[in-house]
Amino acid sequence: MTTIYLKPHKEESLKRFHPWVFSGAIAKVVLDASHQASTPEEGELVCVRSSANECLGVGHWQVGSIAVRILAFGEEALPAHFWNERLRAAYQVREAIGLIREPNSDPALKGRENNTFRLVHGEGDFLPGLIVDVYADTAVVQAHSAGMHVCRNEIAKAILEEVPQVKHVYYKSDDTLPFKAPIEGDRVGWLINGGNGDVSLNGANGETDEFWSVENGLSFRIDWLRGQKTGFFIDQRENRALVERYAKDKDVLNMFCYTGGFSLYALRGGAKTVDSVDVSQKAIDLVNINVTHNFPKAKNHTAVAADAFEYLTAQKAQNRTFDLIILDPPAFAKHRDAVKNALRGYQRINAKAIEMIRPGGILFTFSCSQAVDKEAFRLAVFSAAAQVGRKVRILHQLHQPQDHPINIYHPEGEYLKGLVLYVE
């Protein structure tokens, strides 16, 4: 195996179990004798050693600022049955926190059934570079590193062996793998399709037809082929449930609604009216499908395809106001260089929303930008409130749910932050 030697004193973070080795920490690379090229291959397993030749761990090599992602500390090679053991441990966490509640399994669970959850959350589950979301009997895998792409078939096999309800494994890494990496093999498609005449999984390339998954008793149409991320934003599950608690008899506006998660919870919570807004007409079509499926007699829901800023400006011109507004925009900053502009964007959108909240109303506002920390986000929202001149209280400080765990040795894994505000 190729060996990576670190510069003196650069092993300290690995001894604290931080899983990243940065390229600037590397002193030299000693290639395995079988190598034909002058550098390790993208996704290759390498052994990392200190300058004193102490074995620090084994991980995936990748060209870039993060050169190695450690999979097993103190090991010279991956232990036997590594993938099965890590996936089994991840599944046991989801079982232990009571997330897996199959529909029709227990009448006492009526309205709380759940077969939608994140099985693997990268570093949070000690598998850096890997995301696995489960929808009913299908797991959708995303590789964020070349190494996880190389191991995709082993991972799929282990998922099938360790997660009882999964029969199919779909791979969707077209937007997550490094574009410049010389990666072989398809980035999208079935890794395992159990078949069995399942009409909901009828496409060789992953097309879905009427595929539904259940979250807290609500059914959602999942389109992993054309949808964002793996097809659904599982990370807002607990925050959607909180919206349901506040929605009764309120006029609700759900901005950046995507497929309508917050809208469905608000409707179930007894909202007077719900307006769902997203710039994507495809998303709006899915919102309407989801609402009709769950609330076929609902007459109090409106879905609109529109730019968020233009929509809010138009509603303000008509003197429209709301009791409850949800702002869950896409990441305004995908990297550090964009943070300044992102914070301006958060301030602007929150100011518009606070202006349109009725006295005694509530604002749910979020940032999923990992590059924007919670203090900076809170300051942007504070600035928006001050700009509008309303009295505002923080009721809740929100974050990602239990199936998106944060590795205590890797605080960078905390990305979702939110505030629930009471506006006088």
The CATH homologous superfamily name of the largest domain equals Vaccinia Virus protein VP39
DSSP helix fraction = 25-40%
The CATH class assignment of the largest domain is: Alpha Beta
Largest sheet strand order: 16-15-14-17-18-20-19
Task: List descriptors.
28% strand, alpha/beta, six-stranded mixed sheet, Rossmann fold, 424 residues, single chain, Archaeosine Trna-guanine Transglycosylase, Chain: A, domain 4, Transcription Regulator spoIIAA, 10 helices, 3 domains, seven-stranded mixed sheet
How does this model look, in words?
The protein is of the alpha/beta class and 424 residues long. The strands form four sheets. The protein has a seven-stranded mixed beta sheet with strand order 16-15-14-17-18-20-19, with helices on both faces. A six-stranded mixed beta sheet has the order 2-6-5-4-1-3. Strands 7-8-9-10-11 form a five-stranded mixed beta sheet. The longest helix is centred in the C-terminal third of the chain and has 17 residues. The chain is globular, with a radius of gyration of 23 Å.
